[in-house]
Amino acid sequence: MPLEGLRQGFTIAVSGKGGVGKTALSALLVRILSRMGGVLAIDADPDSNLPQALGLEVETTVGEAREAILNAPARSRVASDKAAAWRLALAEKVEETYDYDLLVMGRSEGPGCYCAVNSILRDVIDSRADSYDFTVIDCEAGLEHLSRRTTRDVDVLLAVADPTKNGLVTAKRVQELTGELMVDFGTTAVLVNKVTPENKPLVESQAREQGVEVAFFLPLDPVVAEHDMLGKPVAQIPDDSPIVQAVVAMMEQVLAAAANI
Ligand SMILES: Nc1ncnc2c1ncn2[C@@H]1O[C@H](COP(=O)(O)OP(=O)(O)O)[C@@H](O)[C@H]1O
Ligand SMILES: [Mg+2]
Questions:
Q1: Spacing, Cα 188 to ligand 2 middle (Å)
Q2: Tell me, what CATH number does 146's domain have?
Q3: What is the pTM of this model?
């Protein structure tokens, strides 16, 4: 148990409009949390880019593994197709300072297949998340893939916005959606990423106008863009950079609040 009071398999989902920084934030969360305990990182965005942000190459996505199993001769099929698909697709990273597994859901061709991938995702979360201390899910903007979850809960949903009206409105909608899904969300928090001293007053007034309560502000950090430009994994940004320090401070608050519930 990494922190007293936190339940095993503490699950954080990151959602929001495309381009707001979900993947960058997820990668930093994986890195920060993997120093505290074992992490399962799940890339649930069909437009997957978490592996690059973590600096991992993934050979197989869950969608691809599922297809390979379905296309195999019936006799050679493994007992449980679902379990086999995610096991095949599990990428591992164990280094001195990091310890995590990465699962990329990916796409699957053919009708109904994305649903099938989502159903595997739910199975994985329900059956496996407990064997990790933390699970971090880089979600797509909608939360459909979590919508039919019935058993396991998401402890913290981070609805990420950028400093635009659209970003704030989408984050608010994501937060509202959580009330309609059959998922028990512990906490949902809107955070605005890419904030500067110049745009912060505007973001605050826009948030008030839209009725959005912003829990956290993360700074625009040129190091993130620089890593992107050079093709370096975001997860390798130096510890003393503003964005890493801000994410660490945010997580300390989030985990402390969760531990006190
Ligand atoms: N705090 C930040 N400061 C500067 N650039 C950022 C920050 N967060 C994200 N970015 C940049 O914004 C772009 C989108 O980020 P990404 O994480 O891929 O978004 P998403 O996963 O939401 O589509 C990337 O080019 C990334 O480098
Ligand atoms: Mg992304």
A1: 19
A2: 3.40.50.300
A3: 0.89
